[in-house]
Write a structure and sequence with these properties.
Elements (H helix, E strand, L loop, with lengths): L1 H7 L4 H5 L2 H15 L9 H11 L4 E5 L5 E5 L4 H9 L7 H4 L7 E5 L5 H9 L4 E5 L3 H14 L4 E4 L2 E3 L3 E6 L7 E5 L4 E5 L9 E4 L5 H6 L9 E7 L9 H11 L3 E7 L5 E7 L3
Parallel strand pairs: 3-4, 3-10, 4-5, 6-9, 10-11
Antiparallel strand pairs: 1-2, 7-8, 7-9, 11-13, 12-13
Length: 277
């Protein structure tokens, strides 16, 4: 996917790719590419049938070849499935891999339908994962996965992560992909993220622009011996480029940047850590 984005940035090609007919054709090709994740499951034909016809827009659970299970909403979550399980989206970079060899406690901010949690408990057997997710469209599939997998290693908190407890409302609409902002009325339950970070080895954040208040909180400086992986977004960034804003906030809080993978749309994934190796 990143290769395609780099190609799309070549002079003269961007204008061609933005034509509606071309965009529709490219989207169709990419959809077929993501169906390759079917072969990660122990019943790929069933997965393909669900993705193409039988379960579009509905949640289904699938068992992977290694025995783990995942639950996705077909037609919506296949790309995330591909990025996490085939693309290694959250595999630690080399210099952090040894440090994260014995992770015991993970906080997953933006749990979505549980794909990261499913990957993490396979990557670090024995780890306990706290997943924080507020979106009802994601919570139902997440609960289905918990039931189908039978895992006791994952705790689901049905709330959004804020800098203090309270209510929150969607920023720019509800549904998958929305971030949440703090509000004094209405919305969904919000929790103070920093009350859940004691003893955490790995903090993962992917909340579509809701990360910026968390990164700006002074309490981030007080955390020790912590690795962090996050997807940063242009939305809500205090300055652009968004990567520079994320880097500056993290280094001000005492983190060292350990890895960075941009996606050429102004977003990207970065790894950082602080404290003893």
């Amino acid at each position: 996917m990143n290769l395609l984005r780099r190609i799309a940035c070549l002079p003269g090609l961007r204008a061609v790719l933005l034509r509606p007919a071309v965009r529709r054709r490219v989207a169709g090709v990419l959809a077929l590419r993501f169906l390759a994740v079917a072969w990660c499951t122990d019943a790929p034909l069933r997965f393909l049938a669900d993705e193409l016809v039988l379960a579009r827009g509905r949640a289904r659970s699938h068992r992977l070849r290694d025995g783990r299970s995942v639950t996705i909403v077909h037609g919506r979550d296949t790309q995330a499935f591909d990025e996490i399980f085939r693309g290694g989206e959250y595999e630690p970079p080399g210099e952090l891999a040894a440090r994260l060899g014995a992770v015991r406690r993970i906080v997953d901010v933006g749990g979505n339908v549980g794909l990261f949690a499913a990957w993490a408990v396979g990557r670090w057997p024995g780890a306990h994962v706290i997943s924080i997710e507020p979106d009802p469209d994601n919570l139902a599939p997440f609960r289905s996965w918990l039931s189908a997998s039978g895992t006791r290693a994952v705790e689901l908190i049905e709330a959004c992560a804020l800098t203090h407890a309270g209510n929150a409302v969607p920023a720019g609409g509800s549904g998958a992909g929305s971030s949440f902002v703090e509000s004094v009325v209405g919305g969904v339950r919000g929790i103070d993220l920093f009350e859940h970070l004691d003893g955490v080895d790995l903090l993962k954040i992917d909340i579509e622009g809701g990360e910026w208040p968390l990164l700006a909180d002074d309490r981030l400086r007080e955390l020790h011996d912590l690795a962090l992986v996050m997807e940063y977004h242009r939305r809500g960034a205090p300055s652009l480029p968004a990567y520079d804003a994320a880097r500056d906030l993290l280094t001000a809080a005492g983190f060292e940047i350990r890895g960075h993978r941009p996606n050429h749309w102004g977003h990207g994934v970065l790894w950082a850590s602080k404290g003893a190796a």
